[in-house]
Specification:
The chain has 256 residues and is α/β, with parallel strands linked by helices. The protein has helices at 23-32, 37-51, 61-71, 86-96, 118-126, 135-138, 140-159, 186-196, 234-254; strands at residues 54-57, 75-79, 106-111, 129-132, 163-166, 202-209, 220-223. The protein is globular. The relative contact order is 0.18.
Length: 256
């Protein structure tokens, strides 16, 4: 699938304030927003120099990921959520793997509070962020419409050839870091909506482990073999994603 929005120029116009009351304008902006590709690659490379994850692959996974990204199929990356630095470790992992090829064409779901500070927002936009208004922050009923818009925009980006990175647990794991928390149906709805738009996304699970002392730098990261065939129903996708992510986390923990 050929990406529609290639190029190194961000969408024109001043970005709207990322506020729940302004969600319609926010998601219209991120429906067409383009990352500056060269800047994105530079940012990911710098994060790799800083965090230096120790990346390992399941048997055959490196080649499978390479073949997947070369095929042009969009990739839905799911990773476990342990700290507020996970997105940087995941970015460094992308730089060290065949996912480097899709840097600049990958959207990353990120909580809305990361978009409040203008300087930080510019960095998040370079990284491909799409805001998420979480129920735990605003209330489930209040964010329902915004959540649907977020899933629609994410699915549309996938259908246009972008990949997507998600921390589907939704919040940092403050319990047992070796056990993936429950995963809601959000990732499944995004995949199902993307498929309804004609996309054929693959799923890639990446497990992260920082060890008993939570050493952020030199994390143990495990990349699974990508799954090219996914279940059809949203909850089935969510359950499948959790199973695949748990296997990747198990391997990351074992290799620490």
């Amino acid at each position: 699938m050929e990406r529609v929005d290639r190029g190194d120029v961000a969408a024109g116009g001043d970005p709207p304030e990322v506020e729940l009351d302004n969600a319609d304008a926010v998601y219209e902006y991120y429906r067409t927003h383009r990352q500056p590709v060269v800047a994105a690659k530079g940012a990911y490379a710098l994060l790799d120099l800083r965090y230096r994850p120790r990346v390992r692959f399941s048997s055959g996974a490196r080649r499978a990921v390479r073949d997947l990204v070369r095929s042009g199929r969009p990739v839905v990356v799911v990773a476990n959520h342990l700290t507020h630095s996970d997105q940087y470790v995941l970015a460094a992992t992308a730089w060290r793997t065949p996912l480097r090829r899709v840097i600049g064409y990958t959207r990353v779901l990120a909580k809305d509070e990361l978009f409040v500070d203008p300087a930080q927002r510019r960095k998040i936009d370079v990284m491909g962020g799409i805001p998420v208004f979480r129920g735990k922050d605003h209330g489930l009923r209040v964010v329902a419409d915004a959540g649907r818009r977020m899933m629609d925009v994410s699915a549309e980006r996938i259908s246009r050839g972008d990949s997507l990175a998600i921390f589907p647990e939704g919040t940092c794991n403050e319990g047992d870091p070796a056990r993936v928390q429950s995963i809601g149906s959000g990732v499944g709805h995004i995949v199902a909506r993307a498929v309804a738009r004609g996309a054929d996304p693959a799923l890639l699970a990446i497990g992260i482990c920082y060890g008993p002392e939570t050493r952020i730098r030199s994390a143990s990261v495990h990349v699974a073999v990508p799954d090219l065939t996914l279940p059809g129903k949203p909850m089935e996708v969510a359950r499948f994603a959790r199973e695949r992510l748990q296997s990747a986390v198990d391997a990351a923990v074992a290799a620490y």
